[in-house]
Amino acid sequence: LRIRPAGPDAGQSELREEVAADALRPGDIIEIAPGARLPADARLLDALGAFDESALTGESIPVERRAGDKVAAGSLAADRVVRLEVVSEPGNNAIDRILHLIEEAETQRAPIERFIDRFSRWYTPAMMLIALLVVMVPPLAFGQSWDEWVYRGLALLLIGCPCALVISTPAAVTSALAAATRQGALIKGGAALERLAHIDTVAFDKTGTLTLGKPQLTELVSLTGQPASELLASAAAIELGSHHPLARAVVAAATEQGLAP
Predict the structure, then answer these.
(1) Over the stretch 47-67, which tens digit does the pLDDT of each residue have?
(2) Range of the domain at 254
(3) Annotated catalytic residue within 9, 28, 117, 205
(4) Active site includes 205?
(5) Burial of 69 by CB count in 10 Å (0-12 exposed, 13-18 middle, 19+ buried)?
């Protein structure tokens, strides 16, 4: 999924060292810089922190977490350096569970796949038997040429071979599941994929799914009577180093108006 860093800065007994993500164990204290992603499920130690969880939930705006809240692996530290305590074992964090769901989805077969399997169990032996009869009966019963009827029997066997039918269905389902996963949609198996053909209504409950998830400043109201340009310039100067989407919107608006510090 490419949302887990190779190694965060981990601090143990106030000594910071860079370690690989798979070396983290429950109880380790890690420090994540703004813009970095959590390599493991962790509990927030700082009083407050904002995390971009769009890679996991689709929520475009960073979610505020307080001390003691659990933060899933793959979340992005939005606006400040945060300290967290690792709570998940290697291979058992949110990212690994999603990967497991993807692997499990690929094993769940669609009804059409199961039907093709049952059909091929009878169809294949039947075609082989018919081809054998085509080869054997005319020469033995009617004195026809062996060369001609062996050729016809092989032609019938080639035409009636179910390889394309048997292979094409699972290949198409697997390709569709993989394509959906690359686009950020996790479909739980071929059965669910097949049911999509009968869906006529779709409900979206997450921001960022249909929108870009990039807020823009549309209006500025000064409550103190300070000129809007001065207020915007001051706000942009404060938010200049922040990675929070709302902070970036303020800085972008100031830049467009030529007010950026």
Answers:
(1) 888 898 877 877 777 888 999
(2) 214-261
(3) 205
(4) yes
(5) middle
